[in-house]
Design a protein that fits this description.
Layout: E1 10-17, E2 20-26, H1 36-43, E3 53-59, E4 65-71, E5 76-77, H2 81-95, E6 99-104, E7 107-115, E8 118-122, E9 151-154, E10 158-163, H3 172-180, E11 190-198, E12 201-208, E13 212-214, H4 218-231, E14 237-242, E15 245-252, E16 255-261, E17 263-270, H5 272-277
Length: about 280
């Protein structure tokens, strides 16, 4: 990302939702352009800042904000629920609004301040058709023809959910990488492993496409909740326990609402030398 003045650095925020961490660049105040090289460099936890996703904020034409997302490997992401909640929380604190709209590749999303430090976002209706997720070919998205018979769901990005006896016993790094790149998913996929604790409680772990193992994922939480409800394992309102904490998902008539805490950890500035090294 290059600034209008090569002698200036680039401000950013570091935020997280349940340990799902983000670098956020507010491009409304800087004429700048993100590149795959810069996103990958920023995502390096040793030589950059480190993040699960990078979010770039711009003014919305028909919404309060417009968001674009990048993964740590320099690829783009169509949706990022926890980053959306983090950015919505910050914007509502800055403006005093209790409800805002944000446009992403997923469409227009609505966010609400629920009080007590909690923020909800409507991630829209889940996609359950094989074409929309997308999958390589026609198949039953509720019972995929893969070992473990997972469920496929689209939440602005593709998801593959396995229901297992014990999510904590799964070799997440090996299986996550394997199924992310499975030929059934032409755009790769996020992978989750979950087990049922009760009719309104799930334990889940996440492998994110283009990132790897993460402590939490908002769109993955929504996908797991939808998959569990479709399978009849839970109702449509559930609590999900992830490695990074708990989030609540409510699949309503108007979309899948996700509610949880957020945190602004620090603000910083990328140096001109760092930016030039990735130009």
């Amino acid at each position: 990302m290059s600034s209008t003045d090569s002698h200036l650095g680039l401000p950013f925020l570091k935020m997280h939702g349940l340990g799902n961490d983000f670098v956020i660049v507010d491009a409304r105040t800087d004429a700048a352009t993100m590149t795959p090289a810069l996103a990958k460099g920023l995502g390096d936890r040793h030589r950059g800042v480190g993040f699960d996703q990078l979010a770039v904020i711009r003014d919305g034409e028909d919404t309060d904000l417009h968001l674009t997302f990048w993964n740590a490997d320099g690829s783009t992401a169509g949706a990022c629920g926890n980053a959306t909640r983090c950015i919505a929380r910050r914007e509502m604190e800055l403006t005093g609004k209790h409800r805002i709209t944000l446009r992403t590749e997923r469409g227009i999303l609505e966010a609400v301040d629920e009080g007590n430090g909690l923020t909800s976002v409507n991630m829209g209706q889940p996609v359950m058709s094989w074409q929309g997720i997308p999958l390589k070919g026609a198949c039953d998205t509720l019972h995929l023809p893969l070992d473990g018979v997972p469920v496929a769901t689209g939440m602005g990005n593709p998801h593959c959910t396995f229901f297992v006896k014990d999510a904590e016993a799964v070799d997440l790094e090996t299986l996550g990488a394997k199924f992310e790149h499975h030929p059934l998913f032409p755009e790769r996929t996020n992978v989750q492993f979950a087990h049922v604790i009760g009719r309104d409680h799930l334990r889940m772990r996440v492998w994110e496409r283009g990132v790897g193992v993460t402590l939490a994922s908002g769109s993955s939480s929504c996908a797991v909740a939808v998959a569990a409800a479709r399978r009849g394992l839970t109702g449509r309102r559930v609590r999900l326990t992830l490695d990074g904490g708990e989030i609540h998902v409510d699949w309503r008539d108007d979309g899948v609402w996700m509610t949880g805490p957020t945190a602004h950890v620090f603000s910083g500035e990328l140096t001109p030398a760092f930016l030039d090294s990735l130009a």
